[in-house]
Design brief:
Length: 186
């Protein structure tokens, strides 16, 4: 977890490969569907371009299908899911059904000014259509309203690891791996 620009996607790939499991990024799956012009992509794009969350039913079904794929049978790392309380509940159900367990939740924290700088930079290099100033502002609001409350939920469950997301990418990776070292997959 972490606000837009915290570095979730960057860290998820490296951390997942060190555990030899897939990183499942809802944002990446939506963007792939947008560029392929699928029905899911057409539906998702309206929300993404406005900085809003794609509706839970759409997102939940997509994640459910993805974690049923063979490469996720040995475990997986989720990037950008769950983001709402309804998604938390849905994930609990999915995990029960697959026989897995939710072992850890990592939240990356980054100074607000740094977040805006990173996103503006990303808009210049990657050309992501949702990295414009007003859409960034809306994504930050939506994160604060809908996703920040999940931090307490997972803290109460004893699953939360708060990691400082400031600094160089490899330093942050080391912090995430160090935080997870004490976690025993059950
Ligand atoms: P960021 O965290 O920087 O906003 P992502 O690539 O993770 O970037 O997500 C981009 C967009 O995809 C979000 O603004 C939202 O519209 C959609 N999205 C991604 N994950 C979810 C989710 N779990 N629930 C609803 N919408 C999502």
């Amino acid at each position: 977890m972490g606000p837009p620009g915290a570095g979730k996607g960057t860290q998820a790939g490296t951390v997942a490969s060190s555990y030899d499991i897939p990183a499942i990024s809802t944002g990446d799956i939506f963007r792939a569907n947008v560029s392929e012009g699928t029905d899911l992509g057409k539906e998702a794009q309206r929300y993404m371009d406005a900085g809003e969350y794609v509706p839970d039913e759409v997102t939940n079904l997509m994640v459910r299908n993805r974690i049923d794929e063979d490469d996720a049978a040995g475990g997986f790392l989720l990037d950008g899911y769950p983001r709402t309380l309804a998604q938390v509940e849905e994930l609990d159900g999915m995990i029960k059904h697959t026989g897995h367990s939710l072992d850890a939740v990592v939240v990356l924290s980054v100074d607000p000014e740094e977040l805006v700088q990173r996103l503006v930079q990303r808009a210049e290099t990657d050309g992501r259509s949702d990295d414009t100033e007003d859409v960034i502002r809306r994504r930050q609001e939506v994160y604060a309203e809908q996703t920040e409350p999940l931090i307490e939920v997972y803290r109460d469950r004893g699953l939360l690891h708060e990691v400082d997301g400031m600094g160089a990418v490899p330093e942050v990776t080391e912090r995430v791996l160090a935080a997870l070292r004490g976690v025993t997959p059950s």
